[in-house]
From TrEMBL:
Disulfide bonds: 42-122, 75-80, 128-324, 206-238
Catalytic residues (UniProt): 73 (proton acceptor)
Catalytic reaction list: 2 a phenolic donor + H2O2 = 2 a phenolic radical donor + 2 H2O
Gene Ontology cellular-component annotations: extracellular region
Keywords: Calcium, Disulfide bond, Glycoprotein, Heme, Hydrogen peroxide, Iron, Metal-binding, Oxidoreductase, Peroxidase, Secreted
Annotated positions binding Ca(2+) 2: 200, 249, 251, 256
Location(s), subcellular: Secreted
Biological classification of the source: Eukaryota, Viridiplantae, Streptophyta, Embryophyta, Tracheophyta
Annotated site residue numbers, Transition state stabilizer: 69
Protein name: Peroxidase
UniProt GO molecular function: heme binding; lactoperoxidase activity; metal ion binding
Similarity comment: family membership: Belongs to the peroxidase family. Classical plant (class III) peroxidase subfamily. Belongs to the peroxidase family. Ascorbate peroxidase subfamily.
Keyword Cell cycle annotated: no
Amino acid sequence: MGKYELLMVILSMDIIVSGGRFDGGGYGFVDGLRMEYYMMSCPFAEGIVKNTVNRHLQADPTLAAALVRMHFHDCFIQGCDASVLIDSTKGGKTAEKDSPANLSLRGYEIIDEAKEELENQCPGVVSCADILAMAARDAVFFAGGPVYDIPKGRKDGRRSRIEDTINLPSPALNSSELIRIFAQHGFSAQEMVALSGAHTLGVARCSSFKHRLSNFDSTHDVDPTLDAQFAQTLSKTCGGGDKSEQAFDTTKNDFDNDYFNALQRKSGVLFSDQTLYNSPRTRGIVNGYAFNQAMFFLDFQQAMVKMGLLDVKEGSNGEVRSNCRIIN
């Protein structure tokens, strides 16, 4: 990281970390959340989560993408309340994690391990929702992304239903549809593009982009927004079946701005990726992030803090689960 990028990260930390109650830095007041929420009740909470995350990511760096994705899938459904962690029960309602959109989520064992250690140290104190939010933040930093703090104090939700996952953004959405869906959660177009930059980590399965490779529409067999050579690469990937994986960019385990460079080359893997460059409404944002990684880092971390405040459960509206997979 260059001196300028480091300076931008430090400055952005001053913007985000304010101490005391968290007013969201303009993101909306959440009365019960504070940066130092566990300072007295479980002072080693953040260290335990970070050490657990780092240990797993050193063994498997691809889990960084998994943790960030899990946090997103949690927050966009019923808010950041760890509902995505709950297991389905026999004879009960099918939980979010068994939705087709969530079957490829990974990293649950990281949350379980951190929770087990925290319960040994501070029983009934640290919520699963906070563990997941901290784990996603630590995964970003481990992969080379920005360092930032987040407010803590979320409670765990008591609902997890497969039918709720219909509200997750589809990889087939265009820019206008993405702007509309994210706006329903209070995000601007720029924040939507910044959060999409999380695809600088990880891979997509063929099942999520194969529709771009044949019978795309009434006039094109292959998505015309795809670079021809990259389309061949994707077709080769799909030769291995629907579960075959294609990296979003050339540095799938590094948090950087290469994702946006790929969009400029017409090499976005998902339709919902490439549309960000094709649309005049968002192309300038993509170009800005492709040119200036520090600006992307700043906007991404601020958008992540904001996302972590979505429909937070507080007080009697939630609980602190003793096991992240089971409602108390």
